[in-house]
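Re: weekly structure request thread

Next one in the queue (314 aa):
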Amino acid sequence: MAQSRPLIGLALGSGAARGLAHIGILKVLEEEKIPIDLIAGTSIGAALGALYAAGVPVHRMEKVMRELDWRALARLIDPTLPTSGLMDGNRVATFLAELLPATTFEELRIPLAITATDVETGEALIIRKGNLLEGLRAAIAFPGIFTPVLFGDRFLVDGGLTNPVPLDIAYQMGADKVIGVCTIPRMEDPAGEISLPSETGAGRDKGRLHEFFTSANIEKLWRDLWQADHPGNDKESGRNRKPPNIFSICSRSVAIMENRINDLQMERTRAELLIRPVFTAFNMLEFHRADEAIAAGEQAARQCIPQLRSLCEA
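Done, posted below.
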């Protein structure tokens, strides 16, 4: 029997905490009964895409993410002495495993492809088969925050370095029409950064680092680390300005790179519909602000309802 409507693909992009907006967009897609036949995901888009592809209800995702306060976030941190990253990601992987009713790509209800980057060669990779959790660990391994994941004989990190919004992958999977979701902040917009608390003295020597990462006050320390430091709020200028810390440099460097890559890829591969939520001074690691991110996604998707409905027309 011939397909009566076009195959619709969903390309969920990177964006860290801003990517929780994907949940709001999925809510609207379900309300409007927009069928999703396949999903391509990068970074946070890979994680949420996997949950949706596995059949996890959107309201369940929303509930779990809305409950992520500072204490819950602190429990997901498994710090390591920083040689290739601050955390090894095991607790985050366990968190995802508890939510996922599938362990392999083959068990998913909706076909899924996720992206990763070989940190040694710079090669963009697509993962579509095998161990779902290991694939997700690689897909979300943000450089400098998570250690690279050994996947076969490769060390993999976040796919956002090479494919921030995987429109092309969704088309390669067979989609006739693609809904793209971009939660990467435009560089001309205010973008929050994270600040390392100066009182810890972290980074001076290995002993101090060990003390920092094993302290009973880790929740407070990591809460300080996550605090937004929005550009433009500092009234000092010229010689009095302080240089950005290493976390600010890392996060903004990746944001700059992803914007440039994203612009080039959008010129080459255009989605039938691109949904881009608007954020105001939103830190990439402020997962405790899920309410705002989800609401931003909902608002952006609702503005596109006429276009969403037209996608289902042959």
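The chain has one domain: 8-194+246-312. Strands lie at 8-12, 38-41, 85-87, 112-118, 124-127, 144-146, 149-151, 154-158, 177-181, 273-275.
Next request, please.
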